[in-house]
Amino acid sequence: MKNINIIFLTILISFISSCESDTDFLDRPPVEVISTEQAFTDQNQVLSILANLYDRQFSVYRLNDWQSFSDFNEVFVSSNDNLTARWHTNNTWPFGGINNYWTTWDYTYIRELNLFLERIVDSPIPDNVKSTFTAEARFLRALYYLEMAKLYGGVPIILESQTYDFSGDPSYLQVPRSTEEEIYDFVISEAEDLKSLLPANPESKSRASMGAALAMQAQAAVYAGSLAKYGANTPSVSLPAGEIGIPASRADAYYTTALNAATEVINGSAGTYALYKKNPGNLQENFAALFYDSDANPEIIFMEEYKLKFRTHGFTIVNQPRFGAEEEEGGALVPSLNLVQSFELLDNTFAPLATVDGSGDPIYYDNQEDIFANRDARLGGTVILPGSSFKSRPVDIFAGLQLSDGSVIAGDERGQLRDDVPGATEAQQVVGFDGPIGSRIQNAVTGFYTRKYLDPAPGSGRRGTQSEVSRIQFRYAEILLIAAEASFELGDPAAAAGFMNQVRERAGFTIPLVAGDITFDRIVHERRVEFALEGQYFMDLKRFRIAHQIFDGTPVTLNGLKSDIGLATKRSTQPWGLWPYKIFDPASPNHGKWIYKEVLSNRVTGADNWQLGNYYSIINNDILNNNPKLTRQPNQ
Amino acid sequence: MKNKIIHQLYNIMKYTMLIVAINSICLNLLLANDTNAQKAQSTKEVAVALDSYEGKLSSILRDIESKTHYKFAFNGKDIKKLRNVKLSNNNGSVYDILYEVSKQTELYFKQVNNTISVSFTQPVDSNFRVDEALDVPISGRVVDKAGESLIGVTVVIKNTTIGTTTDIDGFYSLNVNSPTDTLTFSFIGHTTQEIPLQNRSELNVTLLEDILALEEVIVTAYGTQKKESITGAISTIDNEDFGRVKGGGTSVSTGLAGKLPGVAFRQRDGRPGAGASIQIRNMGNPLYVIDGIQQDEKQFNRLAAADIESISILKDGSAAIYGVRAANGVVVVTTKRGKKGSQNVVNIDINRGFQSWVAFPKVTNSSYEWALQKVQADVNGFGSSNITPEDLAKYQEGTERGFQSFDWTDFILNKNSPTTQINISTSGGTDKINYYFAGNRNYSNSVLGDEFDYGRYNIISNIDAQISDRLKVGLGINGYSETTENPGIPGGDDYWLPKYAILRNLPWERPYANDNPNFLNDIKHNETNWAYNNFGLGGYLRDNRKFAQANATAEYEIPGVEGLTARGLYSLSNEERQLDVHEYTYDAYTYFEATDTQDEEYRVTGGSSNPWRQRNVDKIQKINTQIGLNYSNVFGEHEVGALFLAERFEERFRGTFVRSVPKTNILPLIYFNDVVDYNDQDNEIARLGYILRLNYSYANKYYLEFSGRRDASWKFAPGKRVGYFPSTSVGWRITEEEFMKSFLEGSNILTNMKIRASFGVLGDDDIGIGPYDYLAGYNYNRGTAILNGDPVVGTQDKGNPIDNLTWFKSKIFNIGADFALFNDRLTGSIDYFNRTRTGLRGRKFDIVVPSELGYSLPDENVESDKQFGGEFSLAYSGKINEITFEVGGNLSYARSKFLSSYNPIFFNSWDEYRSSRENRLQNIQWGYQVIGQFADQDQINNYPVDVDGQGNKTLLPGDLIYQDVNGDNQINGFDERPIGHGTNLPIINGGLSFTLGWKGFDFAMDFSLSSGYSFTAENELSRAFRANGGNIALHLMDAWHREDPYDLDSRWIPGYFPPNRFNQGGLSSVNKRSDFWLTNVTALRARTLQIGYTIPAEISERVKIRQARIYFNGYNLFSLHNVKRYNIDPEVGDTNGLQYPQHRVLSMGVSLTL
Q1: Using a CB-CB distance cutoff of 8 angstroms, which residues of chain B are in contact with residue A465?
Q2: How far is B128 from chain A (nearest CA, A)?
Q3: Single pTM value for the model
Q4: Is the pLDDT confidence value at B449 over 60?
């Protein structure tokens, strides 16, 4: 038995002696951490850092955060009750926007861009690669400053990574805001440098190219130009030291820069870009395809790219037509009649959608889509209209049956059947499977669905697959319209008409505009319809300083709705809808025909009221608190 | 269903067989120890022919052994030293041969029975070289006080090594040399007795328990302590108490409600397999230590309650010995072990119960009521309704298609869903080895039907063996296999949609198109169509966890130093989890009747085409090693103890996640081409500690203990890893003092009174940083960018390293007293504690760096808070005639207060009032105070305060009037005031228990009390027709409404709730947190009621059953609380009441002891 004791002691001693030291035991190597030296040694690893910086590029508008597209009353938000309430019963717009969509202050991103630029200098990777990577990081940094400028005006421009030395005095880190002028000048001058450093490669759409640099330059310049010119209309929206407000005297210079940059792109010095016209036979489909067809799409200059399995978004899931949706979801953002009716007739005139004739009687349409006939092809490419299809499935949009006595039978459920329709021998469907049902969410509450950016690929509406449609940051049509705007502002309306007609021709307009047609309203209007639901609208309202006129807190009446279409400052404080009704009157020749009624959802109880402060986003208290050299926003 | 029963029976049989097999092996082991009692022959009568004349002595003795019944007992080493022997003859009697050997070697032989002992000196009682036993047979039986036979009692002839042990029935027999010998009977836990034979041939003995040895011990950190010497705040509960809870397929934690003073309890989710959240003194999540191994709540909850011997809660500095993870108290669990020298016992307990929900929000199941309410809500909200009076009449009639009623609650819920628990265990032991084996089956359906179920098998084996006089080893093996199964449906929690369906689906909606069960009806929100939430249409989810753990222990008494032992422990556990989810695509149909031109048609109008297949595979390995020295000794009245231990803990988690979009619903495997997502994880944890504890006590009167721990955690920067956690405690038993004894003059009024105090420093490394935050560099796998078609995985700068943080310190002071009165019949204890935590993570605000720096200064260990409160418990046990009874109760209170942050900055005095935390109680909810409801439209029109922020335009009679606290005539954030407690655990916890015994009957009842937390009714509980037109909760029908719903001018009829509107967010009465919707909850709950009957032993023993008991158990039978209005369980937390409530379980059971 003694032996067992010895064996035990032997095991014990060998066990103790074989133990690691405490330090070794506690040091557990991380599995995903790379040292800074390692990170910059290998070209692929450096690209991986750059990929992270591309991944985090900022835009107020994000496909994976679809609510950001809910620009005022261009769409009605019907994804859930609370959001509907927040958007449409609200009558003052908070400085940060609902859900704080108008804010960003991501200097961590700036710092990491700066660190990248500093650390790559000593990296052993080949010089040509290094120079392109460097230019790309500078491009992303300039792009982020441009996005910040659009929201805040001048912000601190920090081009080197800073480090606090724990000395107790952080004042050396405090950088004041630049002027609004300086920040646009910074973006423009960076772009000027970058256009020679970046490849002139139109095939490179999700990495910075010369075309992207020029587009950024053109956009920054035209924004700055319009801020200089129209900022004068709202003198109270400015700061004495120029953090907000660009001297009007600089307008022409900016417009010239914008026109030059745009012209360079149009001339092909950055490679060949062109409008997307792969499907000339169906201009509506062609326009829709511009957004989902990224295969050799000549129009895209720079985009945030998505790809199935690797980087996808749910824009299609939440916005797909609810009937036949691939998931029990859809119809979150539904375009308003305000937007729909602003698409011109093909004779270059503006007109409301004809629901009644001159004597006020309803107009009976044989087919649902007839009411939208002869309009700008971009309408059908932007909006899913009653009578049209998505993923080859016709949408089923109608609000009820109208009987011979003018009364309406409707329902509370999509596709509701009723046994008791007077004059019917069998059950009748009294409301479309897509709605509209005003008290419900996730259906065509306005009578329409969103089409732009909706992905027709099978599976795009499924949570498990999602969509790979990419978000376009700069496209050729914008270059043309920047050229048009700059030409107009520089006193050359004929040139402006020329640029604008190229865009309009793709939309099916056959009568070219002439110099005399080009007005401020035209410029604003063309951008509104071309770029609807792309995020330009909100920025345009701000730089043209017309938002406070459009959102004046006064409700939109039916007459108001139908008049002054095409006017840049037309009131649009509430989103209206247009509901189709089916005539059920077997005895009448109108049986089975369609009439339309303008409706304002009873969920809309507020009327948007744009405060002058809203022209620039709030700088939060904690940010101001951390840096006493920052000035507050006007009206803040 | 039938298959399931067969499956269960099969499992029961499987386990029974296993246990029987284990048993028989062990019994054989026991019997192998027994000496042969048959009569021995004299050495003179036995002849033997040896193989050779000469040789080594040992080989000659072996030769004899092989040819006779005799066995020699000798010390092999001594024998080896001897020269060879050479015999004159190799043939003859054993006596002759041994006699010759004796002469040559000077060895002496003595025969007792068939054993011949060999020694170098002549035995004192013998005059012969070869001494023959007299062969006096003696036999008898050894029993305990109760007359139960004792097995394994050592019976030895005094002053010899000759002896035997008692057999399974307590009998022994032995041959002694002389009828005047003395026998020594010794048995663990009993007083040793020496009895002279005095010429008796039969000697029956009753061994009495050794009172001192059986003193009540309490499991504390790294060992046990006598109850009287405990100086910390420790509460204990044993199996007898929490084992009464038969709550269905629930976890150990659910049995603790109201049982332990100082333990806050709340069970928000009651689904099968769910645990409760428990906290010690509301300090945060405690550390769990199971059989000496640091574990977590997950493992604790998955123990089989029947296998637990006791649970101790270390509430104060006594936990400090667990160091870095002990800041929130420690739950120490001990599983059952066999007792040394106890009979082999088999216990079988089978319990079968039926479960239903204790409460769940109720909705209307009448189409007419729904329609009527909707008309009111429409008119209230929009001024008119789509539902016409004619429609309403049809709803009332309820016969036409689309107007009928359907009871979804009844359709979805399965009342009396079964739950079964089976436990079979066996335990026993000799003086050398003891064991406990058990198998446990726990199976429970959910009230959502038998497709939502939970099952677990537990198996445990604890064996201890004294393998030499100084070395004791133990091996504990335990494991479980747990399976959760339910239909795979969208959403992270597949129980959510079915529950939500109850509130969402409308009474006129029907599950099947045209009521044809082959066609799922398209109700337009089909995910809540219960007819789809099943394996057939929905898919499946299977979550299986397998866990196995082995704990090896060894204890070695170091020779030379009395009371010094070395001990070691090595524990290894492996957990494996596999989760498989497959959500199917499905179609939903709308039925179109036949017309003149068309046949009837079920047309696909809804459904999902989204197939979802995922698999998670996780492996968790934990290794715990302890090695140390233990010393304990008594010097007169001084008792000293010391412990030194080194402990290491490491854990590795490896997990993979893969998701695919399968082509069909049929194929269960995942194919590469369909894979869309893959994730890989590998994380490690490592901690180590050195532990020192010193105890001293004098005369069982004064107690002093000091302990300290030096811990190191991998989480911090290398220079910040180490921390020290000392604690000390003292105790004074006043009743042991002479003056007290003389004062009490031997009366029984105060039998024990101890005052104790402790102070300790505990730590916590869970301060909200990741393990590698102290390193600079880049993190791989941060986002993916698509760069011109190529997906590129991102790498991101880690940010500035956080290398200044270390654990926070928690100082806990406790003072308390334990007392016993009236001859120990009334016992109790009282405690007060105060815990201060310093070094909590926070920011120094005096240096602010610009946000534009791009990184924020790291947090530092600068904030502090405190937790204070106390407990009181009292128990009385008594006996009146033949009735024995016990009554016990406890009450505890624990709150937390924030102490200070570092130089906080406030923008203005309101900001300071509203957001300052300095020196304030924590867990306070702010909200509006409701001072009434508007009585009529006039009052609204003339009301000076803008209540809804829209000039009171949206208000109706019955809407809430909020107090305009600051008098600015508008209601906004400035009018908010503290109105409630936190939503987490109750501040006040308590319990009451009663037990009664009379003859064979036993009765027990427990209550738990909780108070001091808040529930806010929101969403479905405060808004009718919520979420795109859901149903209306019954209580909301008691709302203000118009007499004629269609007439805007008709009279308002008051109700309790504000008038309903249809599906409108943003209404003033419901979109603000106010004391109208917030309730500060107090609940008294009947937890367990049990009635049992034990069949008299004389009857049960006829069928060889030692004890048979049948019982009835009711769990959660009723509760009294103040949120009854919402038809919810007072413990749910979701503001819409949608959590899976606890079950009410009625069960019957049988327990047998064989």
Answers
A1: 610, 661, 676
A2: 31
A3: 0.83
A4: yes
> Which chain B residues contact residue A19 at CB under 8 A?
648
Burial label, B666 (beta-carbon count in 10 A; 0-12, 13-18, 19+) = exposed
Mean pLDDT, all residues of chain A? 92
Least confident of B116-130, B181-195, B326-340, B1109-1123: B116-130
B504: nearest Cα among B518, B524, B474, B489 = B524
ipTM of predicted complex: 0.92
Tell me how close the Cα of A451 comes to any Cα of chain B, in angstroms: 20
> SS3 of A37, please?
helix
Please state, in angstroms and rounded to a whole number, the distance separating the CA atoms of residues B478 and A474. 63
Indicate the residue type of B905: I
- Structure tokens, A558: 């039916």
Contact A204 B788 (CB under 8 A): yes
Q: Classify residue B591 by its DSSP letter.
A: E
CA gap B774, B327 in Å, rounded: 23
Measure CB to CB from residue A418 to each of B402, B595, B683 and give the nearest one.
Answer: B402
Question: Cα–Cα distances in Å, from B764 out to B313, B709, B882?
Answer: 18, 13, 52
Contact B378 A89 (CB under 8 A): no
Span A393-404, pLDDT tens digits: 999 999 999 999
CB contact under 8 A, B524 and A414: yes
Q: Which residues contact A128 (CB under 8 A, 6 or more apart)?
A: none
Taking CB atoms and an 8 Å limit, are A414 and B554 in contact across chains? no
Are B688 and A22 an interchain contact pair (Cβ–Cβ within 8 Å)?
Answer: yes
Counting one residue from chain A and one from chain B, the pairs whose CB atoms sit within 8 A come to 296
* Token digits of residue B297: 């709540």
Q: Could you tell me the pLDDT band of residue A15, with boundaries at 50, 70 and 90?
A: low
Which A residues 397-456 touch B at CB under 8 Å? 410-420, 425-427, 433, 439-442
Enumerate the residues of chain B whose CB falls inside 8 A of the CB of residue A26.
686-688, 712-714, 718, 721
Determine phi and psi for B209, rounding to 5 degrees.
-65, 140
| Reported confidence tier of residue B35, pLDDT bands at 50, 70, 90 | very low
Over residues A130-168, the pLDDT tens digits come to 999 999 999 999 999 999 999 999 999 999 999 998 888
| Tokens (6 digits) for B930 | 């409701």
**Chain A residues whose beta carbon lies within 8 Å of the beta carbon of residue B777:** 33-36, 38-39
Helix (H) or strand (E) holding A220: helix A210-230
Exposure of B124 by Cβ count < 10 A (0-12 exposed, 13-18 middle, 19+ buried)? exposed
**Do residues B109 and B131 lie in contact, with contact meaning Cβ atoms separated by under 8 Å?**
yes
CA distance B1027 to B1064: 9
* pLDDT computed for residue A413 by the predictor: 85
pLDDT of residue B14: 52
> Is the minimum CB–CB distance between B128 and chain A shorter than 8 Å?
no
pLDDT at B898: 93
* Lowest-confidence region among A55-64, B187-196, B1119-1128: B187-196
Q: Record the tokens describing residue B131, joined without a space.
A: 């001494």
B386 inside 8 A of chain A by CB: yes
Q: Is B803 on the interface with A (CB under 8 A)?
A: no
> With an 8 Å Cβ cutoff, is B672 touching chain A?
no
- What integer is the mean pLDDT of B124-137? 65
Angstroms from A21 CA to nearest CA on chain B: 11
Q: What does the DSSP assignment read for B483-496?
A: EEEE---SSS-TTH
Whole-number Cα distances in Å, B776 to A45, A163, A227, B717, B950: 16, 14, 43, 11, 53
In this predicted structure, what is the pLDDT of residue B20? Answer: 43
Across residues A354-363, what is the average pLDDT? 93
Residue partners of B515: CB distance under 8 A and separation at least 6:
none
* Mutant choice from B557, B775, B778, B911 vs A, greatest count of A C-beta within 10 A: B778
B121: amino acid identity, one letter: T
